[in-house]
Amino acid sequence: MERSLSGTYGSSEEEMMSITKGPWTEEEDSVLFNYITVHGEGHWNSVARHTGLKRTGKSCRLRWLNYLRPNVRRGNITLEEQLLILDLHSRWGNRWSKIAEQLPGRTDNEIKNYWRTRVVKQAKQLKCDVNSKQFRDTLRFVWMPRMLERIQAHASSSPSGQAQTTLISNTQAHSDPCGVMTNPSLLSEVSSAVDVHAPSLSDSSASNYNLMGGGSCSSYSTVEEGNSNTLWQQNHYSYSDIAGNGFGGADLWTDENICFLQQQLADDL
DNA sequence: AACATCCTCAACCGCTCTCGT
DNA sequence: TACGAGAGCGGTTGAGGATGT
Fold first, then answer.
1. For the CA atoms of A126, A127, A133, A137, what is the dihedral angle to 10 degrees?
2. Core-most of A31, A224, A244, A246, by most CB within 10 Å?
3. Is the pTM above the cut of 0.70?
């Protein structure tokens, strides 16, 4: 076996010289996909060696997980997904792979990118640190309730509204056209923990947003690290067709909302 | 139309963790 | 127990497309 360089998927110096970097070609994708289809995942250095790809095992693994793997979803992150990401991040921090487990088809890389390009950006616009209590509270007590409000409003106004409402309120299964699944238990928890009567844009003078049940941060989180996966497995059911009917691209990161949040933050100081 | 700037996201890098010897 | 190699994770980068001037 070849000598391994520290922290890399081992290969000889000669091989390192001919390692390909950068975007993958269709041909490379095809080779990798065919190999893994036959031999299964894992042993990434062997994959690189046996396929003749001039890529590191690490690169092969990443390409498979983030792009070639079946069921990988790409495209707009839906409001439900955004809500889940915000909620799970508030519980687990930058544990992207753990968060990704709760968003089937989404990769840790995609969620990480979403966080950095959307959430961190908005924190900057609000002139506060993304990790500050102030910003986290704003997300939790203002942003998330309003996301939920939107989801529920959409649910009640769309043809699939009944199913969507059901998704948020209990754990009955429904199929969606894309076969996309998410974690209903977590969504249900978010909906039950978030105060959907938080101030709306039409009531931007209101500053008394709060949590249901007394406003304690600790009362918000109810899923423990150890059982979230079990919950999901037990209640495996589908996501609504929101993503498929034009709603999926919507989000709340609008100028209007930024102004509103700036006002909320100012009031809070 | 041309250029500048911004934004997104695929991919890389370095570190840590896990497992076998 | 110590060590080495593979695997996985989170942070960062940069190419290229989108948008603004």
1. -10
2. A31
3. no
Helix or strand (DSSP H, E) at A237: strand A237-238
**pLDDT the model gives residue A75:** 79
Name the residue closest to C13, CA to C1': A22
Domains of chain A, by residue range, sit at 13-68, 79-268
Cα separation of A192 and A212, whole Å?
A: 8
Nearest to A55 by CA among A94, A19, A9: A19
Distance A245 CA to B2 C1' (A): 38
Nucleotide nearest to A58 (CA to C1'): C7
| Integer Cα distance of A83 and A12 in angstroms | 46
Evaluate if residue A162 carries a pLDDT over 80: no
As given in the structure block, the two tokens for residue A38 are: 């036959």
Domain range A13-68, CATH architecture: Orthogonal Bundle (1.10)
Contact A126, A262 (CB under 8 A): yes
In the predicted model, is pLDDT for residue A235 greater than 80? no
